[in-house]
Structures are given as C-alpha cells and as structure tokens.
Amino acid sequence: MFSLLDSGCGIGELIAQALDIGATAVGIDISYPTLLRSHEKVRGLLVCVDAHQLPFRDSAFDVITAFDMVEHLRKPRDVFKGGL
C-alpha cells in the first residue's frame, strides 16, 4: 500500500479514509484539543507538532497532504522541500 502524512489533519477525516483502504497514516496538527477529538474517531497515529519542526526523516512518507493549512504557516517555503 502507501504511507500518508496529513499535515493539519484536524479531526482526522482523511486519516480515517486512508486507514480504511489499508494505508499507513499519520496525522499532525498544532491543535491538541482538535487531536483529542480526532482520537475518538481515528485509530491512526496522531502527533501534536508544529509543521515547521516535523519529527520525521526526509522521504518518510509516500504521500503528504496539507489541505486548508498552508495559509496558516508562518514560513510555508521552509516547510515544503524545494519551496513553493
């Protein structure tokens, strides 16, 4: 299958869908209260972290999503390899 990192995962809807089709999925969000709510629905790994300081090695995931979160980054060019 594939591995997915959902940056700004919110309540984990995409993580849940990825897990349902057999993917390995990790969700990150800066909001701990939001992650607590998502933990009620999602059985995947959820990490409270700032996207500017990810605790993962380069190329750790096959797919990275960042829906509705890029506009919230202080320095988006620093977050994405190669810039935007």
From TrEMBL:
<dbReference type="Pfam" id="PF08241">
    <property type="entry name" value="Methyltransf_11"/>
</dbReference>
<dbReference type="InterPro" id="IPR013216">
    <property type="entry name" value="Methyltransf_11"/>
</dbReference>
<dbReference type="GO" id="GO:0008757">
    <property type="term" value="F:S-adenosylmethionine-dependent methyltransferase activity"/>
</dbReference>
<dbReference type="InterPro" id="IPR029063">
    <property type="entry name" value="SAM-dependent_MTases_sf"/>
</dbReference>
<feature type="domain" description="Methyltransferase type 11">
    <location>
        <begin position="5"/>
        <end position="81"/>
    </location>
</feature>
<protein>
    <recommendedName>
        <fullName>Methyltransferase type 11 domain-containing protein</fullName>
    </recommendedName>
</protein>
